[in-house]
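Sanity check

After download, print the first record. It should look like this:
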Amino acid sequence: MITFRKVFKSSYPEFVEINISQNGSGTFDIRQLDDDANPQAFTIGAPLVQKIFDLAGKLRDFQGVDLEVHRRIANLGEKTFRYTKGSEVHETTFNYTLDTNAAQLLDIFENLSRQESDLTDLARTMRYDRLGVNDVLLQIQADYDGKQLPEPQRLLTLLDQVAADQKFVDIARDRARTLAGRIRSSSQ
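Expected structure tokens:
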């Protein structure tokens, strides 16, 4: 299992922890430090799992790896990568790294965090704040355009629900329909 943890006080979110097993199942916990832990189950596709484990392998599964830049730099949050297989556990913690493999792995986990936050925000606004759905869709669209969603097809179910449901404003329904169409056409 590969675990990514980021603790960055006074930011939002302050705490992110994502666990991924080799079969693609995992958990994510994204919250403020004062909030209770609430890990949620999720899965990712085989290509992304392979990429995560390949990058961890290039970093020797974090065994004895020092990723810290060792220069005075702003606090960007304490990040930890951990590899666990049976009783074997290796981890490394850093604020900022120049290692390209670690930077790629960090981007994947940061983007998974963003994607899961987008999914959670959309589900919540669909249920409790129908007028806020368009604002969340604007954020999702910006994240998609910025290539910050590693598996955007995971959003399709909720986007299709918004597009088909008359209780949402037309602009949100149109935006959801357009974004879903873009995601579908790019994954073919």
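If your output differs, re-run the checksum step. Summary of this record's structure: The beta strands are 2-7, 15-20, 25-31, 40-43, 78-85, 88-94.
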